[in-house]
Amino acid sequence: MKLVRMILGVLLTLLILGPLMMMISISLNPDEAAINAILGTAKAFIPTALSLQNYKEVITDPYQPFMRYLFNTLFVTICTVGLGVLVNSSAAFALAWGHGTYRKFYLAVIIAVFVIPGEGLLIPLILMMSRLGWLDSYQVQIVPFIASAFSIFLFYQFFSKIPAELIEAARIDGAHLPTIFLKIALPLSKPVIATTAILGFLDVWNSYLWPSMVTRGVEYRPLSVAMAAFFGSQQSYWGNVSAFAVLMALPVIIVFLIFQRWFVASVIGSGVKG
Amino acid sequence: MQSQSPQVLVAKSKGKSKDKRQSLSEELLLLLPATVLLVGFLIVPFVMAIYLSFTDQRLIPNPVPTGLVGFQNYVQILTDPEFWQAFRNTAYFALLVVPFQCGISLLVAVFLNSNFPLRSFFRSMAILPLMTPMTVVIVIWSAFYRIPDGLFNNLIKAFGASTYVDWLGSAAWAMPAIVLLSAWATFPFQMLLYLAGLQDIPSERYEAARIDGANGWQQFWYITFPGLRNTNILVLITTTIGAFKLFTQVDILTRGGPIGSTNTLVRYMIQQGYSSQLVGYGSAMAVIFVIIVGALAIFQRVLVKNE
């Protein structure tokens, strides 16, 4: 019985890893003619050549500055996620430990806006961005996505479980709310920071629709949009396209392997938001 | 208290309310950045979408000022054959992908929840597609769908087909091909939800059933499945919502074609409201989209809360 399960597990892994293996093995093959001959066969899944030629070509291609795209994506992702953690957690802390009577209402609004899908806001958002003159910039990809009702809610749930004695003790010592937040609450909230950061990272790294609307040239374009354009223009250069794909997927997979435990928790958390 | 003079009392309460006012301003300071951003980039665009849907607004300001047109955009949408085609395509995608993807993820979750060596390794591997950017998944799978000699065409040839299928180029196969790719790319999400649901079922129930002589199938049918009621609702509805947001796959792989057979609600909305610059018309579509997805989300919460 255990053996049967092991075999099933191997089959599942092959179905999952197969496409990724094909991407890697083709990216290592410098010979386009050879790739075209084996692309639809089992040979495409096993590396037959080990050359970094395609990677070199992708990275040094003067018409599509890969390093620029990578920097754009990294920069946008880090800013959005980093500022998001700060802004969302501080708001959540005020909601959990403030004194205002408005807090219940605020929280109800936060929960209500979960149901608004971002796609439904894109048309007015692009109108706003064009009036602000933000089109084709970094801020157009960052600023609208820093605040997140879902992150605020996750942080709120975590902060409201902090023992009241801890907060009161700090208050008696004369600490103000922002100080309590920075010195006590934030250092405690590593798990929620990880959760919201991972979800945010995936969202921003993979986002395609919005950046494809708001970026024009190569200057601010992120990897996802560049990948689609590159694929569209070089559809028959499988070696280069695969190398591009590997370079884009690798950072995410590395982040995943490091933060695997948190990642599972965050996906389950994000399912509950529905 | 009575022994204190009124002046002291007044001074005390003044100090307290000053304290309170100060701490209130501190908490508002903490709330300010998130509130400004949420209002500016969520609430305002939402209200704008509703307002714009009643206007003939265009993206680039035209010489003729924008006017209110009442329900004209909505009436026009309801009689727009391309909108209905996009709606049907989206519903068709959901109809295909939801049972397929939920079924697979439940199967894999039950399997990965059972005990065997290297289970956690297999689990990590199963999550990998979710880590692969969608644009990358699309590129890999387009190689499988290649004509005439992609992997899938070679497979059906091996089974005796004499010709090839133009997977992405035929109206009949394009959507099923997108379904298969999408299910592969995102099934780990549902699988993780199922795994969490499975772990919430008390193991004593299984022990009791085993003592009563229930076999594996009976255990699944009488314990696992009822125990997953809330998880099932959650998974079904989040998958449906995800399906209604279909965009990237059809935008890159088929550009909505052939002959509009894979154009979706989101893609048609973007086409009208952005590419064709008909902001009013696109906004009306966005409002309809928000109502559909919002209704699904509220429906889910009502169902799960009633438990």
Automatic annotation (TrEMBL), chain A:
GO CC terms: plasma membrane
GO biological process terms on file: transmembrane transport
Record key words, sorted: Cell membrane, Membrane, Transmembrane, Transmembrane helix, Transport
Membrane spanning residue stretches: 74-98, 105-126, 138-159, 180-202, 237-259
Residue span(s) of domain ABC transmembrane type-1: 70-259
Main location: membrane
Membrane topology of the entry: Multi-pass membrane protein
Protein name: Carbohydrate ABC transporter permease
Organism taxonomic ancestry: Bacteria, Thermotogati, Deinococcota, Deinococci, Deinococcales
